[in-house]
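As promised in the previous annual report, we have extended the structural survey to additional targets. Below is the entry for Acetyltransferase Pat.
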Amino acid sequence: MPERYTPPPTPQYALESGPILLKDGRTATLRPAQPEDRPLFVEFLQRLSPQARTFRFFSEIDPETAADLLLRKPPDEDKVTLVVLTGDPERIIATGEYVQEGPGSTSAEVAFLVDDWYQGRGLGSLLLERLALIGVRRGIRRFHAYTLAENKQMLDVFKASGFKIEAHNEAGEVEVSFEIEPNPEMLARFELRERVATVASLLPVLRPRGVAVVGASRDPESVGYRVLENLVLNRFQGPVYPVNPAVTPAAGEVPVVGSMLAYTSIKAVPGPVDLAVLTTPREKVLEAAEACGQRGVRALMVVTTDMEPTQTKTLVQTCRRYGMRLLGPGSLALMTTSPEVQLCAGLAPRLPLRGKIAMSSQSGAVGLAVLEYAREMGLGFSNFVSLGAKVDISSNDLIQYWEEDPETGLILLYVESFGNPRRFARLARRVGRKKPILAVRPGRDAVVEALFKQTGVVRAENLEEMFDIAALLAHQPLPEGPRVALLSNASGPAYLAKDALETEGMEAEVLDLGSRASAEAYKESVKSLLEQGCDALITLFVPLGYATVGEVQQALGEAFQEARRQGVGIPLLTCFMSPGKPRVQLEGEQIPTYRFPESAGRALAAAYAYAQWRRTPPGEIPDHNVREDEARALVAQAQGRLSPETTQALLDCFGLRLSPPPKGGVLLALRVQHDPLFGPVLSLALTGLPLGEQPLGLRITPLTDREAAEMLAPLTRTAHLESLQDLLLRVSRLLEELPEVEGLELHLAAGPKGTAITEAQVRLKGPSQSSPKPS
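The corresponding structure token record, generated without further manual editing, is:
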């Protein structure tokens, strides 16, 4: 087996340009340096202490000369200079660069410089990660750095990077060198740093110390008044400040909103304000956001809807200048049920029940509706977040927050669109190993289905099914195996549940007690079935005029409680086909109850599928020792559809060659289409059939060995699976290394002893579609 390949990590935004998060949760902007940035560089260098300049340039240097050195572009050598900016007016707070060590060299010298006031906030590590990822894309394989021995902070950045560092100390100077290809340790450090920063940035949102309602009106029917009232009546455990710039009290009067002392400006608020909820008319939002930034507010929740795109863009820019996170616009609810917080911000009138479920909803209206439905089911939440337009805070951010949150055990997502699906895929794969992620997305999309399947996300068809499954995942253990016992007093409902289970690969045995079954018969049968052994138990009851619902509830409660005392750890489900919402209550445990047997069957089948995915070790990506630098040189000189000669040369860099078809076997077409949102999408189909092509599977890249094997499962006993798997993985690697590839099609002949590529076509993106390189 070849060595393992580690795909480069995926930042939430563009690699070299976009918003970033500091370790303390503040936001800033990363971008390539430009020649016109010279005044910003001079001002930045003037702010630095003499020691900081000496550490960077090895001697005292005037700011103007230093700025010219940082911006100088050496001839015939690759150089990348990145800057981090924040504040109003915008100023540089950190810069990093690498300079190629000679034309055509695969090594470069790297250095960075951080504002004294921003030391210890992860900027050095972030710049090093980004420069390394850019360098690898541009053919650089090794970084060198030179620093003074007393520059402990810089040395610590290198040591904590996850790269394998070689250091040599001579005469007070330390030379550091290391390979910059991504490795598992570097990837783990990248994700840890990003998670720490994301959690820190969301604490002012989900656990604020103080909240201001900007636009709090005296009109009880207004949005501002209702938001203020909801915060107060749900007993937020911190100060709440009404802010209404329109309030102009007469001389000697005290401004009041809803019997609370109000303020005419956010700047006049005396106490801590982590979160400001903006309910102003849309034409006032930008002014309010600017004032909040100047006041030092950490995060904004914008309830206001229907903002113009230009207004929204300016709002985002304002938040980034001041380091604020932004929820919305159009966020209708933000909730934390922890007794230490009790945050109910927005238009939902009351907090949900407290529990282990955290939910993110892209639709505010859907979110408000499901809160009441969940209450009826007895389901409790740790957090609920209505994302609104999600121009900043997204479900990816929240997933990282909930990953280690001790109050969250299950993550629910109502998703209408994806901002960064490749980042979502990496997060879901990781977090899903610890906590289930359950999602609903309107419509059917084969690419989204593939994304969920590859990442272990439990897909629900609709909101009702989401909460059916959530009731099980939140309160019951996962099934260890496929054997399900179905106990019922009516065969019809039992076989409906049986069909739902067996459709998804589970095994169900029905014990029909008959229509005259007593509550005692249920109790004794539960005991007997559990003694015989099964992986899950569903009890169904239809009131037929003999035993009552109450009697069966009590009998099942006693039987289940006894089973738990004896150490039975399988999932237990009930279905009462009767009016009302009867439930079986145990000490410290909630038994999920369903109105219809199919619902119980589908929920248990979904939990079993998730349990199987979670127990299956994650796949790996073999390295294959490909010649990626040679491949990049080929595509750098080409455009559009490649010639047959260039196509073969490109494929050869990844160990793929055209050859005559073997005898026997099947004909296949492997196609790659570049989805503008999801990136490269692989599809495989049988060809040469009388009735046309037969699709076999679809996956997004990067592909692991296990995912490739799953894609090829329909060809078991009809093709040489090992050679096909190797081919799929090599094509996936090609797509990861060459984002310029827009389309690819391989015609394959898969025989019993091997696989041949009989025809190949490759198409590259046009110049306008290629990603710009940083300067």
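Residues 184-206 form the longest helix (23 residues). Residues 557 and 584 are 6 Å apart (CA to CA). These points will be discussed at the next consortium meeting with the crystallography subgroup.
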